[in-house]
Amino acid sequence: MNSLYNSALRQGSAIRRDLDALAEGIQPSPALLGQINVSLTSFSRTIEDYNKLAKQELVPDKQTKAYERIKNFKTEQAEYRERFERLKTEGEAKQTVHSHAELLGRRPHNTSTPENPYANTQPSPYPQQTQGRYGGGGAQLAFGATPEHADRESHALREQSFFSQTNSQLDEFLERGSDCGEYVGD
């Protein structure tokens, strides 16, 4: 029983050491993650074996002491598993951010195209005219539309602006594609 207790203590300290190494690392290596996972499984089996021997103990004082140790080991095991999962998710998040930054950093040229081209809606260059206080409705807008048709005119202008932006973006995408094709051909 003492050998299992000493083994559990050594496994616990090894798991702590591995978790500290994982916390210090920039990105988690699959080898270290696997090693910690195997160590946790082995620690769990050692606790189970120690529990079986504690049940067979004939001296009541030693049995209660063994049950206290088992309780402490299980608490440590739960803490180790929680810390391992937390460090693993933090490492994955760091890796995702690093990969995203690296991928965006590889772009050979800066572009004015936003990630969402539809998010940049610009107000109409032709402001809507409102009727005066006394309803003087004789004003006309840029293309001869009356104030009643101002919404229609501003929509047509936004649509035209959208089409011209789309055409220029498509031309830019085609140019990029041909540049990529030239690089592949070389």
UniProtKB/TrEMBL annotation:
<feature type="compositionally biased region" description="Basic and acidic residues">
    <location>
        <begin position="86"/>
        <end position="105"/>
    </location>
</feature>
<keyword id="KW-0653">Protein transport</keyword>
<dbReference type="GO" id="GO:0005794">
    <property type="term" value="C:Golgi apparatus"/>
</dbReference>
<protein>
    <submittedName>
        <fullName>Uncharacterized protein</fullName>
    </submittedName>
</protein>
<keyword id="KW-0472">Membrane</keyword>
<keyword id="KW-1133">Transmembrane helix</keyword>
<feature type="compositionally biased region" description="Basic and acidic residues">
    <location>
        <begin position="148"/>
        <end position="158"/>
    </location>
</feature>
<feature type="compositionally biased region" description="Polar residues">
    <location>
        <begin position="110"/>
        <end position="132"/>
    </location>
</feature>
<dbReference type="InterPro" id="IPR027027">
    <property type="entry name" value="GOSR2/Membrin/Bos1"/>
</dbReference>
<feature type="compositionally biased region" description="Polar residues">
    <location>
        <begin position="161"/>
        <end position="170"/>
    </location>
</feature>
<dbReference type="GO" id="GO:0005484">
    <property type="term" value="F:SNAP receptor activity"/>
</dbReference>
<feature type="region of interest" description="Disordered">
    <location>
        <begin position="86"/>
        <end position="186"/>
    </location>
</feature>
<keyword id="KW-0812">Transmembrane</keyword>
<dbReference type="GO" id="GO:0016192">
    <property type="term" value="P:vesicle-mediated transport"/>
</dbReference>
<dbReference type="GO" id="GO:0015031">
    <property type="term" value="P:protein transport"/>
</dbReference>
<keyword id="KW-0813">Transport</keyword>
